[in-house]
């Protein structure tokens, strides 16, 4: 093992899918007033009429859903930006004035009314199509995960939390004190030499290393990616004929370095001999460019379109919609995302599908084999099952920081459901979205109350505090049975405060520095460092859009650093106080005891509600609700 030291002194279903015409959606009840906006028809449940134009971004929407008493702004963000005389927070203003793609701060879409969000998103995407494909990501200059973690004493989520990431299922017991052979940078020799180092701290894929012989001296400690090509198990140098040379700073400490190494390394742990091979194998991805898939239409969530894999980075796919002539109309997602499917999937389950104008596949394009896609759990729809009109709670895919009152609008085959957010649906159902019955993004009625999460009531609903019992009675609806929801909670290993790299799902080409701020069973609240809580996102613990610290460096993807203080200076203090007061007032309306909810929600049946797991303890096979059978 130490000989190295001695050696040196110093596809057919596509056609049928393409021919599938878009399925009609049943109109909403006629008793709801209709409001037209830019040619699109919307309903507004409280009967109030009138439109307004945001003085900041120019977006048109329902006046009564606008922010502030004067209804001058479509969102809190626009109000802030206007008050500070800055238009950097407006997507449209940024595109029109500078021609630059939106930054993280520009995502005012998240807090706008759904009417405005849909219109803004469509217009924003149309503007992007007319731009050259020069989307420059935020500069990473000056940001280092190592410095960021060291200076703030942060803890990163372990690699084992991310089963879809490289080495996620075969990380083993790599931990502190594991020894490795690494290049010796404290050396004046003209050739590349190595030395032994031990892991002092582990943060995802990144490890803080200290050369053997430095004891408690941290002056030459350094961070590196443990999966990098220059990291090897102890013994690699001897087997490869590479020299082991002690760092120049400590060469004088010992005269017999071989004896020192024998003493220090006896009984120590190192990487498995095939570690680099496992890393390489775990970074092989079955999806290849030119494969065709069905993916959600980002302009109309209720339907899918055909797209072609343009590139694959670390398992993330850049998909280009097949009808995009200049190949700029794209969509980013992971290969295990529930948003992509094999060609013919939409037709097989009865999902809406946008028929392509391209009647013949382009040369070289081929259908992705169905077995490559993520499998969903099989369900039995023959017995008691979800029905149209049933109420539930769901994460809003257009505003991922909120869980909203929602309704099942259509039951599809194979356990898939079309869901709409109450109070802000388009009359033609174009903003319905598809979740599987086992999706961790849908919840039984009462989930938010039991777990102390703020539930977003239907837009325009004025009877506050919101009570499910009253709402179900007023709408003549029933709650989806609790037992139909997925209540499995894996032993995921996340803890509050852990750092990670997370996709900004409102702009999925971006991966940002993020933190886990809440844990409710398997549900994680992801906060993007440097940004306000309004940009937070609820994400499942097994989401393929979460990655260990160092994933971007390992795969070559660009990481977005935390927002700097200067990028947030446009926010006025008065606006912050106004938002805080509004938030506290809203939360005051939501005080309802578990006993009240239990008595009001179900008449004749007993339900026991388990309090949500604390923000520190998250694992185990806990259920959201347990129904006591008679």
What does this structure look like?
The longest helix is centred in the first third of the chain and has 16 residues. It is built from 15 helices and 31 strands. It is elongated, with a radius of gyration of 27 Å. The C terminus is likely disordered. The protein is α+β, with helices and mostly antiparallel strands and 630 residues long. Strands 5, 24, 25, 26, 27, 28 and 29 form a seven-stranded mixed sheet that branches. Strands 11, 12, 13, 14, 15, 16 and 17 form a seven-stranded mixed sheet that branches. It is found in: Nucleus. One of its GO terms (biological process) is chromatin organization. This is Mbt domain containing 1.
Write down the overall mean pLDDT: 78
- The radius of gyration over CA amounts to 27 Å
Number of strands: 31
The portion of residues assigned to helices is: 10-25%
Largest sheet: 7 strands, mixed
Distance between the termini: 68 Å
Shape: elongated
Report the uncertain regions: 6-49, 84-113, 128-139, 568-630
Number of helices: 15
Provide the β-strand percentage band.
Answer: 15-25%
Main location: nucleus
Pfam families: MBT, zf-FCS_1
Region (Disordered): 1-31, 562-592
GO molecular function: chromatin binding; histone binding; zinc ion binding
